[in-house]
Amino acid sequence: MSATTQHSMAAGWRLPNLWDAIAFVCVIGALVAFGHVAEGTMTAINAPGATSVTLDPRMLPEYAIRTTLRMFAALAASLLFTFTYGTAAAKSRRAALVLVPVLDVLQSVPILGFLTFTVVFFMNLFPGQVLGLELAAIFAIFTSQAWNMAFSMYQSLRTVPADLAEVAVSFHLTGWQKFWKLEVPFAMPGLVWNTMMSMSGGWFFVVASEAVSVGDNTWKLPGIGSYVALALEKKDILAVFWAILAMLAVILAYDQLLFRPLVAWSAKFRFETTAGATASDPWMLRLVRRTRVLKRIGETIGLLTSWIGSLRLSVRSGPRTDHAEPSRIVDAAWIAVLLVVLAYSVWHVVAFAAQSVALSDVTETVLLGLITLVRVVVLMIVATVIWVPIGVWLGLRPVWARRAQPVAQFLAAFPANLLFPPFVLFIVYFHLSPDIWLTPLMVLGTQWYILFNVVAGAAAFPGDLKEVASNFRVGGFLWWRKVMIPGIFPYYVTGAITASGGSWNAAIVAEVASWGNTKLQAHGLGAYIANATDRGDMAHVVLGVVVMSVFVVLFNRLLWRPMGWNGRR
Fold it and tell me: Contact, 476 vs 228, CB < 8 A?
């Protein structure tokens, strides 16, 4: 073997350095901690300590790890759902007739509605095992994460610039290659920001997801959410404080170790022809680059994924490129099938609800839905006025966006339940109306969908267009109307759709607030569903969920969808 070859191999396979040793210790420590905590998922439900929660702060590290594992398991499922469901909805016109309305309905169904119908299924998969409860909790967290990410993917695939699509055709890319080489990179900046928002959305509903009920039995899975629920039940302010600290520590940890590197990495996929403003790489990314083994592993994974994306697989890349009109006969047959399925489903729902639901109940539910609708509309207007300018300012300044990122994640993750004590005491002390003063709790966790999407849109705004506007001295209101708002509009619509649907979902938590024996209730559809759930009245739960879904679908179809089509122009 020649000296040149030996030198080349030595340069390519250098020995691990100090940074590799540090990374190795951290990875092994994390795996050991996760393995120790995961042992509790394979035990029996009636085993000592399997479903018991204590307010001892020393247990919070273990609870935090268990909650984090559930959230990342749900996030993995959400990513799989996003790349399949969101892609199918964007690429198939006929499939979109079903998938998009179903997505509207799913994001509006309260998390308690999912728990009611799915817990029994997972419990039967693993009877008597904690794993069944864990899967039910993970699925509940999944329902608070997946819809936002799927909408982001759908919106991005529908707004790929036409000139980039023409370039893909010129290079004779197959559908598979176009998806991985063009469409996924184009969607990546928005998807990363929406993934962060989905993690925060999971925290918002983690209190409900970690308390699993079947009939008269309720199990509390060890975690931060169940810790918070027990602290509120015991009126232990100190325990609430410890839970907030634990949440803050976990959010800062995965922000520094995961999301900051992901945001910096996704910035290279911004669609622009001139250099834009960038921030320095985060310390975690620099640390990985200083290692030798981890860097080589990362490069190998990158080469493997690039090779997979370069395979010339014959997968249809999107809508038809020729000028042939789609078959009207097939369209008519497809719509007829959908109408039959819809009529069959409606008939079953009506037959189930009619057993104990009268016409007066339907009228009452619709009126309560109108009250909640007014709250949602007002909150969306207020959130838009506040967060769109702030999101644009942050998105155009990557350094400040990176500084604000962990703060926004923590505020978005902050469960509304933790604000019940001050809100309840404030309303009772000043004799205020719950119908007005409980309303802000609805938008507490959902307003951040608007902020995160606007930040992503402003960050992805092409630098050459900003330079053109600057050269022509376009400023003030004209700059907002002609430059920035059209640029971020598709991102805003995605955030607004998810925020409005999430606000309907959050109504079930926000319209009923309690602290100890003091319980306040606002008039609205969320309170109606919450009360029916407490009574175990499934017919009225179904009625409330159906009415809420109808309101959300009509709201999206009459307002957000036309705005989205206008934005894609």
Answer: no
